[in-house]
């Protein structure tokens, strides 16, 4: 698999674990390994990017939506915690949890987990804004998308907040 692989090649089975969707599933590839013999930090971001793409598809704002509606979610802030070294071939899953939403924003986190040991390997929290791609300006989520977000958010608010999500990301 090349580095130019599209996120379609990294589709997760999209089966929930409680109400948190699995948004990525796959092994650590050889080209992701750095000179220390571990997954390079850039590839943690790549895996989390694939998970974000899958979340957007689930919420109805994926690639086809962007092309038809000229709107997308832009990441404006992200924090990553690298918790464990990850080696070649290790099986990964990413579980996603919505934390907060507003008319124009969405805050969520991804947990990268070793699918065999269930050990948490990395954590990221993101803040994204909904943007009209023609004008470059934020705008409110359309009602149908907001309904999707609010439905998933309601399920996720019943779950424990991950400890690492206690550090707020957001606009000041």
UniProtKB/TrEMBL annotation:
CDD domains named among the record's database cross-references: 4HBT (cd00586)
Region (Disordered): 1-20
InterPro entries linked: 4-hydroxybenzoyl-CoA_TE (IPR050563), HotDog_dom_sf (IPR029069)
Domain of life: Bacteria
A GO molecular-function annotation: fatty acyl-CoA hydrolase activity
Protein name (record): Thioesterase
């Amino acid at each position: 698999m090349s580095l130019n692989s599209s996120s379609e090649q990294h589709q997760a089975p999209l089966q929930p674990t409680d109400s948190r969707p699995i948004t990525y599933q796959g092994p650590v590839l050889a080209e992701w390994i750095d000179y220390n013999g571990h997954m390079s930090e850039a590839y943690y971001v790549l895996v989390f990017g694939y998970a974000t793409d899958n979340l957007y598809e689930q919420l109805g704002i994926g690639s086809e939506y962007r092309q038809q509606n000229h709107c997308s979610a832009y990441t404006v802030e992200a924090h990553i915690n690298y918790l464990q070294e990850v080696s070649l071939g290790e099986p990964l899953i990413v579980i996603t949890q919505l934390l907060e939403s507003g008319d124009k924003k969405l805050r969520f986190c991804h947990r990268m987990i070793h699918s065999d040991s269930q050990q948490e390997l990395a954590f990221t929290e993101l803040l994204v804004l909904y943007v009209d791609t023609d004008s470059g300006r934020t705008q409110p989520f359309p009602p149908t998308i907001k309904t999707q977000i609010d439905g998933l958010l309601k399920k996720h608010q019943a779950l424990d907040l991950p400890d690492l999500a206690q550090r707020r990301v957001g606009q000041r």
